[in-house]
Automatic annotation (TrEMBL):
Residues 2-55 form the HTH lacI-type domain. InterPro entries: Cro/C1-type_HTH (IPR001387), HTH_LacI (IPR000843), LacI/GalR-like_sensor (IPR046335), Lambda_DNA-bd_dom_sf (IPR010982), Peripla_BP_I (IPR028082). Keywords: DNA-binding, Transcription, Transcription regulation. This is Transcriptional regulator, LacI family. It holds the Pfam family Peripla_BP_3. It comes from the Bacteria. The lineage of its organism: Bacteria, Bacillati, Bacillota, Bacilli, Lactobacillales. It comes from Ignavigranum ruoffiae. GO terms for molecular function: DNA-binding transcription factor activity; transcription cis-regulatory region binding. SMART domains: HTH_LACI. Residues 3-49 form the HTH cro/C1-type domain. SUPFAM superfamilies: lambda repressor-like DNA-binding domains, Periplasmic binding protein-like I.
């Protein structure tokens, strides 16, 4: 592999001269022409990332994700990557695996790498994270959680809960089992549930709430004690991924969906519907949120003192699970 030292030796100049050439520094026209010719002849490819680290800022956008096995994150990531590439940026992804300590370490790593901006897929945002964001000069956009005083882009999860509750009420469902997740995730664990409950507050309906986590195995464990009490009920899951696990568990125990038990969720993941009834769900625009998130972080890079806030609308998709 050809190195900067090789280029310098072949051109009869110092390494620092080659470095200045690669970084558009001051080099005489004659020397510049000689170095360019040797680079073309040898096929030398400079390390763009290493070069950019020497500058005050790179053209990399850091992206902090909570885990790799999230469909919503992956859809948004693909949109971010494509939009960034078209605008001349690259993304640098770091995974926290839902570990608070790794989240902070990842933010510090991205700061060290001099990324131009950070997109933070937020779940449970702690004070030490917001403290770090307030002291850094790197623009940060939170994705998925409302962060007062900071820039963020979110789905309207409260509205999503109301949309689904309205539909189920209008369809005649009066006995509802809602499976939520930890309140540490405000958007999924609090806002969706509160929106759902707000519509039903003055309605004559039975609403039971169970708590699970995002793991499909765990939700099956949570639901098993209820298996003999599910006839004619509708089960609402905090995500479509959990709804998929519930449908499979019901099938394994002889229930017909939706004849015996109806199921609904949040997310609108078309990939989950293969081989199963299409899930009635409030669909979130994950691709749209990825595209908009990149444009917002680009605006923040250009206007670092500004605060950007955006809500992405939701819509109901009626499937065959209700």
């Amino acid at each position: 592999m050809v190195s900067v030292s090789d280029i310098a030796r072949l051109a009869g100049v110092s390494k620092s001269t080659v470095s200045r050439y690669l970084n558009n520094g001051q080099v005489s026209p004659k020397t510049r022409k000689k170095i360019k010719k040797i680079i073309e002849e040898t096929g030398y490819q400079p390390n763009v990332f290493a070069q950019s680290l020497k500058a005050q800022q790179t053209n990399f956008i850091g992206v902090v994700i909570p885990r790799f096995d999230s469909r919503s994150v992956n859809i948004a990531l693909k949109a971010i990557d494509q939009t960034a590439l078209a605008a001349g940026f690259q993304i640098f992804i770091v995974n926290s695996q839902l570990d608070p300590q790794r989240e902070l370490a990842n933010l510090k790593l991205l700061q060290h790498l001099k990324v131009a901006g950070i997109l933070f897929f937020a779940t449970n945002v702690r004070k030490e994270i917001t403290d770090w964001v307030e002291q850094t000069e790197i623009p940060v956009l939170f994705i998925g959680q409302e962060m007062i005083g900071h820039s963020y882009i979110i789905h309207n999860d409260f509205q999503a809960g109301k949309i689904l509750a309205t539909h189920l009420w209008q369809q005649g469902y009066r006995d509802i089992l809602y499976i939520s997740v930890s309140q540490s995730d405000k958007a999924v664990g609090i806002d969706r549930l509160n929106g759902f409950k707000s519509y039903l507050a003055d309605k004559d309906v039975k609403l039971e709430i169970l708590l699970s986590d995002f793991d499909q195995t765990h939700i099956k464990q949570v639901l098993r004690p209820q298996l003999n009490q599910l006839k004619s009920r509708v089960i609402v899951c905090a995500t479509d991924s959990l709804a998929q696990a519930v449908i499979q568990l019901l099938k394994d125990h002889g229930y017909q969906v939706p004849t015996d038990v109806a199921v609904a969720g949040f997310g609108g993941y078309s990939a989950l519907n293969l081989g199963q009834p299409m899930i009635t769900s409030v669909a979130f625009g994950y691709e749209e949120i990825g595209i908009r998130a990149f444009h917002l972080i680009k605006e923040l890079i250009q206007q670092p003192k500004s605060v950007k806030i955006e809500l992405v609308p939701n819509h109901l998709t009626i499937g065959k699970s209700t």
